[in-house]
Amino acid sequence: MMLAPLAADLPDPGLAAFGQDPWWVIALKAVFIFLILVLLTLFNIWFERRVVARMQHRVGPNVHGPFGLLQSLADGVKLALKEDIIPKAADKVVFLLAPVIAVVPAFVTWAVIPLGPVVNFFGHETPLQLTDMPVAVLFMLAIASIGIYGIVLGGWSSGSTYSLLGGLRSSAQMISYEVAMGLALVAVFLYAGSMSTSEIVAAQDRLWFGLILLPSFVIYVISMVGETNRAPFDLPEAEGELVGGFHTEYSSLKFALFFLAEYINLATVSAIATTLFLGGWAAPWGIENVWEGANSGYWPLLWFFGKVFCFIFLFVWLRGSLPRMRYDQFMALGWKVLIPVSLAWIVAVATIRVISLEGNINRTYLVAAIAVLLVLTVALMFVGDKSDSSGEESSTEASEEPHDAFAGGFPVPPMPAGGAVRGGAAPLSFAQSRTTVTAAAEENHE
Which terminus of the chain is more exposed, N or C, with fewer CB under 10 A? Predict the structure, then answer.
């Protein structure tokens, strides 16, 4: 169920509760968040390996520690003890700073994520949140966008073609899906009336935004998978094309920092989705009716991380189920589908919001107009796909013309099973192709 208890039962301190803590409370909160993220990363690596192993009828890690829970710690120690190699062609300063630039924003983003209500923290009443601000969601998006610089700089500074291509792919991917992600959050701002994370959680008093803003929720979930470079959108790390992508030349602790940043970002986007669409730390509907203290004390941590783990399981499920997309299909999904649908949905939500506040227009006509708008949007997308396919057909017809290997003056042997067969000529063997090229070269030399 995607329902939450009434806001009257939830403590809502508002923004006034922040900025009043002594320095030692702020320091303990920061350490608390850091430890949670490190332990969560170790658990997520183990969890992903176990779930994928279960899907593929394997055992998974089960030797180090109970149920293999210490396997991630063993992998971290192994990475720390590996030889640290810096390529000669690398820009050493940027090469060393890139992993740090990638991992630091992943930690900072959690500063504005609400983990629970006001609690007694070592004798001091304080919210389970490091800080909050009127534009907290924009702060999260801005900080998360800085992490892409670490990936791009890491690929550029390595002095490797594969790494450079991986960094370029990652930057293009971030730009494409950051737009759709930002548009998906506009509807949340319109309904919540605020960009503060704590106030957005409080605004989901009767219904979670994931239910009443379902298209925005779906668009955000797709965008967050693309934003974190996870399968089936893991094109910057495509091992069949780019060896390892942007971190091909990295080893030891520098590679471990990139690995840490990826898994923290995995938890970060899941926490943002929980906060903005699933009621944050509020208990699911029905629990508050049978247990009055479900939303007080430290119990909301259980509901919050339970929702986060649901998204993490979704990430793992997608990785074990779907193949990697082709790059042009991936970019077309972002620019031709997600962004147009997001724009149309924002117009619909803004219109509904104005009508609900003023109530001067017939809702039946309003729903009909929105339906027509959505149908036109989908139709335009199909028209674009049809024109693309017609262009492909025309290019295919043009390629079926006979192939002249010596048209440009330079001998090019026909492909064994490609254009020569479609052109009507029999494919040449390797010896025949070599003889043709040698004879043409001698003729040009004379």
Answer: C
Report the C-alpha gap between 63 and 324 in whole angstroms.
31
Across the 446 residues of the chain, what is the mean pLDDT of every consecutive 10-residue run? 42 68 91 93 93 91 90 90 86 90 91 91 89 91 87 87 84 85 91 91 88 91 87 76 79 88 92 93 83 86 94 92 85 89 88 74 65 69 56 53 59 57 46 50 52
Sequence-distant (6+) residues with CB within 8 A of 223 are 177, 178, 180, 181, 184, 334, 338
Within 13 A of 441's CA, how many CA atoms are on the CB side? 8
Q: Please, what is the Cα angle at 252 between 144 and 98, to 5 degrees?
A: 35
Instruction: Return contacts of 327-333, CB within 8 angstroms, 24+ apart.
Output: 327/169, 327/235, 330/173, 330/226, 330/233, 330/235, 331/172, 331/176, 333/222
C-alpha span between 378 and 373 (Å, rounded): 9
pTM, entire model: 0.78
